[in-house]
């Protein structure tokens, strides 16, 4: 080892040697480096987040003393029985999942043409401008955008003002499930556009040329080449739109009506109002299970590489 | 492969959807300058009179301070854990490597109420008092992924030959990190941090379950909208929040091409 290398750093030989030995040992054993780097974040995540999920799951089988309001740590299926027996919880769960599915479908249909335009038609310069135009709303405050819609859909809002201008009757969609559907589709749309764009951009141009050389028309190329290759992007986007809708309670509260409650609203009220964490936990297992199944299916379709 | 008509139609459609994405945001900015306290359209006139009472409202100030503190601390934790994880996963193949990525994406892939509820029940279980740190822990769980994704994407695009060249020239591991790796990833770190801060500053759902009795800024806004209180002030605050969430994202975008939860490469 050349001694001259050490002197400009002003380190004494021994400290430098130790540092070099540690550095060398870590460089030669990538697993050791990987392990020492990964252990703290993974341990922290497991201790806080995964443990929390486990506690959530376990507490779903607990109860609350109706008089004292204290936690009863007794294993029982009471919470699930209540959920199963009361039809109101079925309605709410079906509404949540139904609107989440509708929002996902709407966003996929709206996002695909834009993503296609951005990835395959727009010139590089306008592409990056479009990208910023799509990405900025995604990152601007979610709550603010929902609130904006509350003002737009209001009886005296912009929507009715525009309709009135065209001589059309006023739309009474404020505080309804329709409003919830529109607003969710609006707020999560960029989450769908970006992964589809990424998937479309990755399709090599030679594939399209090959398809044309083999005699396929535009529509055939689209069906047989573009669509299958873009599908992982659609699935990746749908994870966001579906999951975010499934776990939300702000939008139903702000733009929904009296019969727009989501699973999230019941969960929130159980925790915040009636202080019944076990019941909330039991109901929260519904979106957890739905998302679990969805994520496993999505992982199989290779959507995680497109995320 | 597209005909001219298809291209033009796609272009018009894209323009319409971009307008659809931006009109509500522009409208809410206009509402902040509404001279009437009635929230109807068209607005009565323009004024800046709501900003002063909004900024001087003590409840707003408390919420703002809590949001800034929580955002800064959560971002700090996310920076440390996210970059460690990214370095660990990069160039290190092992069984369960996919699961590690999956673990960090989980807090944003799972519905917000799940994360919120889960953290809430763990805090209740351990008798932790709700306060600044419970909010920070909640925010850090979903902020880690932004730093992780940004740093990992940058590491993957940084040629390993740079590191090897540095070692060949006699630098030890720490010097290589200090003079080669760190400069290469620094903008990715900053952009990841900015995005994490924007994410934290805006979060409502997880926060409601981890904040206890105190209000972050989004919680303050949400509460006021729901109760229909001081709406003109809320409109003014909302514009401030928009600015605080958009500015870091614009900066992040300028620093890296791969910014965002949803990167393009």
Automatic annotation (TrEMBL), chain A:
Pfam families: BPD_transp_1
InterPro entries found in the cross-reference section: MetI-like (IPR000515), MetI-like_sf (IPR035906)
UniProtKB keywords: Cell membrane, Membrane, Transmembrane, Transmembrane helix, Transport
Record PROSITE patterns: ABC_TM1
Keyword NAD: no
Transmembrane portions of the chain: 37-62, 92-117, 129-148, 179-200, 221-244, 277-297
Gene Ontology CC terms: plasma membrane
Acyltransferase recorded as keyword: no
Gene Ontology process terms (BP): transmembrane transport
Lipid bilayer topology: Multi-pass membrane protein
Subcellular location: Cell membrane
Domain ABC transmembrane type-1: 93-298
Family: Belongs to the binding-protein-dependent transport system permease family. CysTW subfamily.
Official protein name in the record: Unannotated protein
Naturally occurring in which organism (per UniProt): freshwater metagenome
Taxonomic lineage from the root: unclassified sequences, metagenomes, ecological metagenomes
Automatic annotation (TrEMBL), chain B:
Gene3D superfamilies cross-referenced by the UniProt entry: MetI-like
Cellular localization per UniProt: Cell membrane
TM ranges: 12-33, 70-90, 102-126, 132-155, 176-198, 204-222, 234-255
Keyword Transmembrane helix annotated: yes
Main location: membrane
UniProt xrefs under PANTHER family: PUTRESCINE TRANSPORT SYSTEM PERMEASE PROTEIN POTI
UniProt-listed GO biological process terms: transmembrane transport
The family this protein is said to belong to: Belongs to the binding-protein-dependent transport system permease family. CysTW subfamily.
Native source organism of the sequence: freshwater metagenome
Protein name: Unannotated protein
Topology with respect to the bilayer: Multi-pass membrane protein
One cellular component term from this protein's GO annotations in UniProt: plasma membrane
Matching SUPFAM superfamilies: MetI-like
InterPro entries linked to this entry: Bact_Polyamine_Transport, MetI-like, MetI-like_sf
């Amino acid at each position: 080892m050349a001694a001259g290398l050490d002197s400009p750093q002003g380190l004494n030989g021994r400290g430098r040697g130790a540092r070099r030995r540690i550095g060398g040992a870590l460089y030669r054993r990538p697993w050791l480096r990987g392990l020492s780097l990964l252990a703290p974040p993974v341990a922290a995540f497991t201790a806080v987040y995964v443990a929390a999920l486990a506690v959530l799951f376990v507490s779903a089988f607990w109860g609350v003393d109706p008089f004292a309001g204290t936690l009863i740590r007794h294993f029982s299926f009471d919470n699930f029985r209540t959920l199963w027996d009361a039809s109101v919880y079925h309605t709410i769960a079906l509404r949540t999942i139904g609107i989440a599915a509708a929002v996902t479908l709407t966003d996929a249909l709206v996002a695909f043409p834009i993503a296609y335009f951005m990835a395959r038609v727009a010139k590089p310069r306008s592409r990056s401008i479009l990208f910023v135009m799509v990405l900025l709303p995604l990152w601007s405050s979610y709550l603010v955008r929902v609130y904006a819609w509350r003002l737009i859909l209001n009886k005296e809002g912009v929507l009715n003002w525009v309709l009135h201008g065209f001589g059309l009757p006023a739309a009474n969609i404020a505080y309804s499930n329709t409003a919830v559907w529109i607003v969710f589709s609006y707020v999560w749309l960029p989450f769908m556009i970006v992964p589809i764009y990424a998937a479309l951009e990755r399709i090599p141009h030679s594939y399209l040329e090959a398809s044309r050389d083999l005699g396929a028309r535009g529509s055939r190329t689209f069906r047989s080449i573009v669509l299958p290759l873009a599908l992982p992007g659609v699935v990746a986007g749908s994870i966001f739109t579906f999951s975010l809708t499934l776990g939300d309670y702000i939008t139903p509260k702000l733009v929904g009506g009296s019969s727009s409650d989501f699973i999230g609203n019941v969960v929130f009220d159980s925790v915040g109002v009636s202080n019944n964490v076990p019941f909330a936990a039991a109901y929260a297992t519904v979106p957890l299970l739905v998302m679990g199944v969805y994520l496993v299916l999505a992982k199989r379709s290779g959507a995680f590489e497109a995320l | 492969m597209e005909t001219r008509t298809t291209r033009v139609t796609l272009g018009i459609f894209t323009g319409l959807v971009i307008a659809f994405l931006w009109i509500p945001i522009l409208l809410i900015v206009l509402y902040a300058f509404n001279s009437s306290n009635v929230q109807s359209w068209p607005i009565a006139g323009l004024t800046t009179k709501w900003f002063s009472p909004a900024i001087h409202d003590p409840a707003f100030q408390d919420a703002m301070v809590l949001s800034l503190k929580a955002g800064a601390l959560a971002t700090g934790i996310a920076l440390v854990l996210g970059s460690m994880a990214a370095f660990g996963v990069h160039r290190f193949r092992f069984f369960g490597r996919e699961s590690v990525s999956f673990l960090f994406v989980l807090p944003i892939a799972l519905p917000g109420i799940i994360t919120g509820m889960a953290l809430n029940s763990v805090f209740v279980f351990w008798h932790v008092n709700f306060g600044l740190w419970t909010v920070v822990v909640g925010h850090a769980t979903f902020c880690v992924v932004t730093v992780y994704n940004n740093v990992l994407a940058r590491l993957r695009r940084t040629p390993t030959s740079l590191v090897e060249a540095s070692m060949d020239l006699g630098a030890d591991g720490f010097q290589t990190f200090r003079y080669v790796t760190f400069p290469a990833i620094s903008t990715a770190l900053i952009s990841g941090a900015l995005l994490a801060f924007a994410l934290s500053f805006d979060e409502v759902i997880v926060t409601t379950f981890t904040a206890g009795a105190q209000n972050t800024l989004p919680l303050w806004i949400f509460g006021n909208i729901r109760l229909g209180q001081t709406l003109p002030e809320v409109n003014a605050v909302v514009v401030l929040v928009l600015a605080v969430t958009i500015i870091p994202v614009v900066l992040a975008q300028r620093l890296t091409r791969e910014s965002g939860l949803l990167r393009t490469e």
